[in-house]
Every structure is written in structure tokens, then in C-alpha cells.
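[User] Once you have settled down, look closely at the record that follows, and write a paragraph about the fold.
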Amino acid sequence: MKKVNKIILTLLVILTVVLVPKVSVSASNDAKPETVILSEKNLLILNSEVNGESTSAIIAKAKELDAKLAKKEYLGKKAPLYPFLNSPGGSIQSGLELIEALQGIGRPVNTVTLFCG
């Protein structure tokens, strides 16, 4: 039964990422809404328990994306990162480390959450 639930959950994540790839983000009340396409260029996916291993992998990926995005930025405008969370929970300490690391990168972070337990 757990295997069936895991397969269904994986399919839901895939469908969510594929069928709902656009997120409307508004910079201010006067500005036109910006369309953001979630892609491997700006998306960090945590699809497991929050622990030391998963947090380290997300932090490494965030630093890698930050370095790639820094090369393409102009006029001091920093592109945001979008962590996609689908987690049953896990270590509070690891979660806090992830938050601190993402804040330390110095670029906007907009979290997209499917499930957090």
C-alpha cells in the first residue's frame, strides 16, 4: 500500500510541475504582473524528508544556480529561486540550516509548497 501511495504522490508532483508551470508574481501594485516559468534554471526540488543529506543537496544546487544566474544578470536585478517542497517533515535543525543558507545567497526566494508535514 505504501508503494501505491508513493507512486500516486510522485505522479501528483509531476503533474503539478508540468501542468502548472506558470506562477504570477507581482512586483508592486502599479507594475504589470510578471510571468515566471518554473524550470531547471530557477527551481530547487525537495521531494523527500528534510534531513542533513537532502538539505546539503538543496544548498549545493542553490549555490550552483546562483552562480549560473549571476552571469546573466544585469543592472543589479537578481532573479529569484523557487524551492518546490513536497516533504513529510523531518529534522527541524536541517530545515533551519536550509533557510539560513537560502537567505545567505542574497537573492529572492519564493517557496512553492505541495505538501509539508
Q: What stands out?
A: Residues 2-116 form one domain. Helices lie at 2-19, 52-72, 92-105.
